[in-house]
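Q: Sequence in, structure out?
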Amino acid sequence: MNIPRRVSLFCAALPLLSGCVSVAEAADLRAAAATPVFEQWRETQHRANDDLLTAGLGLEGLRSTKGPAFTNPALPTAAEARQRAIWSSWRGIADLTPGGGFGDNYGTVQSSPGREFSAYARIAGARHPHRVLVQVPDNFDPSRRCLVATASSGSRGIYGAISVAGSWGLAHGCAVAYTDKGAGSDYYDLEAKLGFQADGTPAAQGALAFTPEAVETSHGIAFKHAHSGDNPEADWGQHLLQAVQFGLQALDRAYPQSAPFTPANTRTLGVGVSNGGGAVLRAAEIQGDWFDAMVAGEPNVSVAGAAPLYDFVTQAALLMPCALLALDDLPQPPLHAQTQPAGARQCALLKTAGLVQGEDVVAQAQSAREQLAKAGLSDGALRAGAFSTGFDLWRAIAATYASAYGRYAAGEHPCAYTFPATGPDGKPGPAAAELRASWWSEASGIPPGSGVTLVDGNAVLAPDEPLRGLSCLRALWTGDSADAKRVRAGIANATANAPRPGLPIVVIHGIDDGLVPISMTSDRYVPQARAAGAQIAYWRISNAQHFDSLLAFPDYRKRYVPLLPYMFAAMDQVWAHLEDPTRGLPQDALIETTPRADAPLQPAQLSIPAVSSR
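A: Exactly. Output:
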């Protein structure tokens, strides 16, 4: 049953009335969305030198370039694995450099004591569970009950959104519910037959978070995003909904005297960046009052009738190394001296394959650049994409997503890609126990990285066809093979639909985003959603690219501003409106910014839009 929102406001003022909603009504609300049974419940306490937000590290500990040590490098304790996971998650998303503004102009790393509840959740019909986790700060007030729900960015582990949702939500006294949305860092060593338990420690048996169904001949490393067989992107919205449902159940356990906690009496804000932003927009489609508002930053979202991001990624993997030679003044890293020779070789290969025109490198690079521009990529986004090109992200993303879309098991990749560990000599080989123990805490969820590499089997099968692997990935979108049809079916299942009418949404995107280009995602989603009656504010930010963490490099902070300040501002403004509807909602804005270079970031440089009262 639907309970009017005015009941929620009334209940907030009368916490002694068991939330003002009867147990029967609460059961009806939850049954309406087929609340899952959560498995492997864990509750842990985090106080004193081990808080919720920084695991006791504080700002200086998070800034350290070396992660917290494991007493036994091959077998960390659950507390040690958690602390390093939180350290890694902060450093992968936020700009924590002195003068960068985090903790001064936006966000906080203030210690937040409290409790964590974690479990496994499962989408109906899924082969493998996803992780859910709820942080309940000690200053949570059941009379002003609030829940921030978030999904990890990229393919990161369960703490992947802590620098955004955790920092904002815990500072506001809200519980924060997380999901790894079916991806995460639960790697599995196929040869050692070792994975990870619910507490993040390595194990060979028990209730592991991910045990792949691999073919007999498979070897190397399996990871959930690529090898679960569940195409997690198709269910991102359901993953976030289940995080909310778990959050409400966790609050029931944390405050039984104030139970039940329901969508009608608990204010809920959905927030996420990148893939997490995509999950927020997919959850916005779900009917029912599960969410009061949404804030999506740089969302990876595809809409019906337009090419998906996989189309661009496979084009970029082939063309961008060559196309970048047509632009000067590229950001560093990667260093030009390292990338230019590889780009020239790629131009020559593309020319031989008939994929670019021109008799010299200059003409070939311009041909590649024009093709990417025709696909919708601006020069600003192309420049920012130099990082993804130099560090082989396009190939890594394409190989991983192709496997997920087609629901291929480990060892079945249609383009012969494998993911072996690297030995001490840097070559593929068995994973050392110390390396394996670090995966849950440090891995990004998509190799290469953390001692796991990406190997193109075509290099052995067809050494005289160096573009064969990338061309195969591209053909999974453009071709007509059985594998291509299988992958395209998975892509179609991940297409976004219109959000629930009346749900306030803020979409925020950097104009120079080189990984999830604004022209191919938010610029397409917002008009279609509005045409369906959505209530959306759209902030487009100049001089902003995809990775705030890159602002640690001097050349990047001379060019770009961080995106996270706008996430915090949007959450503040939306929350103020929910608290007092006479305060307006955010409105559309094209935001002109000034990068800080080497001086401390000043609020005026961000030009954050203000909201006027009604």
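Residues 1-32 have pLDDT under 50 and may be disordered.
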